[in-house]
Amino acid sequence: MTAAPPPGCPAHASTGLVPLTAATGAPDHREVYRRLRAEWGDVARVELEPGVAAWLVMGYREMLTLTRNEQLFSRDARNWRDQREGVVSPHSGLLPMMGWRANVIGADGPEHRRLRAPLDDGVARIDQRRARRQVEALCEELIAEFAARGSADLVGEYATIVPMLALASLFGLDSAGGHELLRALIALFGSADDSQAGNRQFEEILLDTLRERRARPADDLTTAFLDHPDLHNEAEHLQSVVVMISAGNETVTAWIAHTLRLLLCDPRFASRLHGGRLGIDDALDEALWRDPPMNNMPARYALRDTELGGHRIRQGDCLILGIAAANDDPLIRPEDELTEPGNRAHLAFSAGPHVCPAQVPARLITRTAVKTVLHRLPGLRLTVPAEEIGWRPSPWTRVPTALPVAFPPAPRPSKENR
What is the pLDDT along the chain (418 residues), one digit of tens a residue? Predict the structure, then answer.
């Protein structure tokens, strides 16, 4: 492998391309994707970090080609030419999200199917009624902390906390462990200078949990992974838990936040929901169309020279799944801003062999979180202009930094009535 260029080397200079974070951090990310489409077509060249370029696949049909053809587009990051040749520094903040790991995300073919089976089996064993009750109780407890105040930040005090504590419970972690994981994951998904440190802390917490469960089994997903015949060693046990929690937390936070933001900022949609013409699931699906939890998803790597979207793709090129852009493809997006109720043709969960395995629990957590806050806080309103909402820095996810709201104060329920 070629040594990584030292800091200040021209290899680390800007590519002159649009940085991917310019889209996820823009007030209207769809406008950025539309400008890229106007310039490049359905596949655009973008910058991941200074000196590191990739293809952003924005066409709906091109996305299906990319995700369904693993003989041509591999999930294995060891095929990434820029990393092999040292263009990507070993200290890059991209690597916790994009570097190869010996897990289901980094595998293709039979190996992928072997590592996928424990995830599918784990999701299938979740008692949905019990999980819904637990999530609802968690939501009620969080809302009770600020209901009497008449104001809250529905990201920092709610949407960020609900999925992590819900997932932590499924894997047998307590509340304190859930909050530790949350801090580490926010750093990991940011793909900035603290990303690798966050990744190390995240894995250390989960490894301790695995070793504790090996000594004292319990009725949770951690024990289920330890007992699964398709996982052969501690590294595979760890990486399976890593995938489920890391993929499920930030994305569900985004889904909850975007659904609430949609209802707070789009009067037409909110009136249709409150008027009974739409249900909570319609609101969840509309949020997936407009702001999918993963705006951009890493990555596929070309196994040979090919063509996609009218561009020559070289062997080893990195291709990013532009999920938000593909959902906005004019070939499939209706002219009316509001999607037809029940339309789930979006690509929010990706497609092909690597389609998200946890769609059911993700929807359960999100639906319960949104429904509970709407029920408990009638008269909810945003206290800042919609255009002033900021975004956490990340090339991948688009999570509001805050959703400050006000509502008529509600009395704090007694412990007996919670």
Answer: 334 444 334 344 567 899 999 888 888 899 999 999 999 999 999 999 999 999 999 999 999 999 999 999 999 999 999 999 999 999 998 998 899 988 999 999 999 999 999 999 999 999 999 999 999 999 999 999 999 999 999 999 999 999 988 988 888 877 666 677 776 666 666 556 666 776 777 788 888 889 999 999 999 999 999 999 999 999 999 989 888 887 888 899 999 999 999 999 888 777 777 766 678 898 999 999 999 999 999 999 999 999 999 999 999 999 999 999 999 999 887 666 666 777 888 999 999 999 999 999 999 999 999 999 999 999 999 999 999 999 988 899 999 999 999 999 987 655 555 5
Backbone angles phi, psi at 366, to 5 degrees: -65, -45
- Specify which residues 382 forms β-bridges with: 405
The DSSP output letter for 45 is: E
Residues 6+ apart with CB under 8 A from 194: 93, 187
Pick the closest to residue 338 from 268, 399, 390, 386 (CA basis): 268
Task: Answer whether 262's CB lies under 8 Å from 273's CB.
Answer: no
Token pair 């939501």 is at which residue? 139
400 CB neighbour count, 10 Å cutoff: 23
Question: Strand 151-153 to strand 73-74: parallel, antiparallel, or no bridges (unpaired)?
Answer: unpaired
Q: Are 259 and 194 in contact (CB under 8 A)?
A: no
CA distances in angstroms from 279 to 31, 269, 282, 370, listed in the order given: 28, 11, 5, 11
DSSP string, 213-253: HHHS--SSHHHHHHH-TT--SHHHHHHHHHHHHHHHHHHHH
* Dist. CA 17–CA 54, nearest whole Å: 10
d(CA 194, CA 53): 21
- Which residue type sits at 31? E
Q: How far apart are CA 269 and CA 278, in angstroms?
A: 9
Instruction: Compute the residue count for the chain.
Output: 418
Helix, strand or coil, per DSSP, at residue 305: coil
